[in-house]
Amino acid sequence: MNMKLITSFDEYQKQYEFSVDNPETFWADVAENFQWRKKWSRVLEWDFHKPEVHWFIGGKLNITENCLDRHLPARANQTAIIWEPNNPADASQHITYQQLFNHVCRVANMLKAQGIKKGDRVCIYMPMIPEVAYAMLACARIGAVHSVVFAGFSAGSLIDRINDAGCKLVLTTDGAYRGDKIIDLKSIIDEALEKCPTVERVLVAKRTHSKVKMKPGRDLWWEEEIRNVSDVCVAEEMDAEDLLFILYTSGSTGKPKGMVHTCGGYMVYTSYTFKTAFQYQDGQVYWCTADVGWITGHSYIVYGPLSAGAITLMFEGVPSWPDMGRFWHVAEKHRVNIFYTAPTAIRSLEKAPLSFVRQYDLHSIKVLGTVGEPINEEAWHWYHDNIGRGECPVVDTWWQTETGGFMISPIAHVTKLKPAHASFPLPGVQPAIMDENGNELLANGVEGRLAIRFPWPAMARTIYGDHQRFKDTYFSTFPGKYFTGDGCKRDEEGFYRITGRVDDIIIVSGHNMGTAEIESAIDEHSAVCESAVVAYPHDIKGQGVYAYVICYDKPHEEEKLRKEIRELVAKIIGPIAKPDKIQFVSGLPKTRSGKIMRRILRKVAEGDTSNLGDVTTLLDPAVVDEIKSGAL
Ligand code: WT7
User: For 196, 239, 346, 552, which has the most beta carbons within 10 A of its beta carbon?
Assistant: First the structure.
């Protein structure tokens, strides 16, 4: 691809200005670098009040032709995916673009043979094995809409997601390896599907060779079904605005939001931002440690890198097994050039002895990246100094499931680095910092809430089945602008720094969760009457989950009940949502209108009880003293 790389800060500024003054020309120029079946007739139509956004109107394409077919003449035998298994004693795989093409076509034909057509929704619940990438691309090839559910989610979370999307088919495995553990994915699917009437078929790939139950008439083995299909599959012609996938993210209310991403804009944007922010050069080995269950995996393990013809590494394992040196072992083994991970991983690896880093040669690494939550300065320096030898830029990418791709980020080797700052908006991105009254703060040296003024090609188009909620959540706070839910500072030099969520979303180990979702899981316990969840600062996870719980009767065995509540939350949502601290209380600080004053709960959870602010509007100010004295 001959997308123009930005090589100096001056050029960045010029391109940035151009992209703001002429957004349509700017994005049309980028889009020219892709293979379209039919060119668009108009670049953009939008109205943030409705809200409605269309990019590359009338354009026809298939994203997999851009990720696969297009590369075959020049790089059929170049590696597309390097796969590193959970167990370092097992062999890794190098999958070339030609092989990837054939695998994807076969899975696509297997799906077709099960009656899956354009527009059907397919749930993918799989570990980080090459088949998960084949599955996503196979859906895209035939125009089916994938909904990947992170394999760490439990049956309850699966039920919500499968039913909301009305999935017809599920792709899964017999089990998943996670360090020294085996997770029974298939039995979690079995439990979920009892409550998912739309699912007709389950295709099960073998990974752990665990004993699983196969339901006759519903479940089929992937290996058997794929045996007799062709390895060529003509791609379905998709409109630029046809659905590519749905991906669920947590909301302020309990119900997850199915963010809808479409084919054309998403492809153009993820490819462009991947190449630009990381300054990816042909032949480099790129490794993003995320899971494909999150947007990072969608955009920057699968679609962005593959559409750019890159070599993308997929890792099945965890950073801590067999020991805390695993990441660095993998980086040395595959001579990784660009390494992209989350602050929570950096903080946990930082706690391990440096010998785990020093025993590996990490000189191949040229660029480092981080994503998922604000990175603290200490972690930033540790990463920069010990992994990046004090030389590699740290690309701190701020973005969201909703944005589809990077929004505010340094450009490697171009942007001056400022620790813990996402720095500047990428070309085409127009941020606005808003004050409490909804006025835009135009100067530098300001702090407020972050909004985006103008559409970008990869933005989510709606919430699946609930456009009103899309409007209410993102376009009502600041009419005419997209509201991110994040707080933000812009310093005197114009560097942006994301300060964290300003709504009821918390980010635990880089995973986005709604406090309401955790509360309703806790409330399922028969002893629990009501609960309130807030975040508190946590050394490694960034934020920990602090739950205040009211029981019908004062609990006799608090520890036992805590354990039960934790297990219940793990069962309903997934282990990532387990409360770290549970404080039993007899009441919650509520206003006269019945609203919980979370500000107070947050302060207590943070261990700062000196100044709780105004508590006079509380219905019963006495509960505050009780909460303070019982703080954990
Ligand atoms: C929220 C979005 C984007 C992929 C992973 C998370 C926080 C993300 C950064 C960063 C500070 C960040 C924000 C955002 N966030 N990246 N570099 N610096 N905060 O996607 O689950 O949709 O979460 O993650 O709060 O709103 P997500």
Answer: 346
Residue that is written with structure tokens 């391109």 in the block: 15
The CA-based angle 328-332-338, given to 5 degrees, is 80
H-helix or E-strand spanning residue 536: strand 528-538
Q: What pLDDT, in 10s, does the model give residues 315-337?
A: 999 999 999 999 999 999 999 99
What rounded mean pLDDT belongs to the chain?
95
- The pLDDT score that the predictor gives to residue 620 is 82
Closest by CA to 4, choosing from 276, 243, 211, is 276
Best residue among 341, 383, 398 to mutate for probing ligand 1's pocket (most ligand atoms within 8 Å of CB) is: 398
CA distance 298 to 29: 24
Ordered by where they begin, the domains of the chain are: 1-62+258-287+325-503 (3.40.50.12780), 508-629 (3.30.300.30)
Kindly state if the Cβ of 488 falls inside 6 Å of ligand 1.
Answer: no
Please tell me whether the overall predicted TM-score, pTM, comes out greater than 0.85 for this model: yes
Each residue of 446-478: pLDDT tens digit? Answer: 999 999 999 999 999 999 999 999 999 999 999
Give the tens place of pLDDT for each residue, 231-272: 999 999 999 999 999 999 988 777 899 999 999 999 999 999
CA–centroid distance, 398 to ligand 1, in Å, is 6
Strand, helix or coil for residue 120 = coil
**CA distance linking residue 510 with residue 525, whole number of Å:** 27
Q: Is 491 exposed, middle or buried (0-12, 13-18, 19+ CB in 10 A)?
A: middle
- What Cα–Cα distance (Å) separates residue 63 from each residue in 143, 340, 400? 10, 24, 21
Beta-sheet pairing, 176-178 with 169-173? unpaired
Q: What is the mean pLDDT of residues 147-163?
A: 96
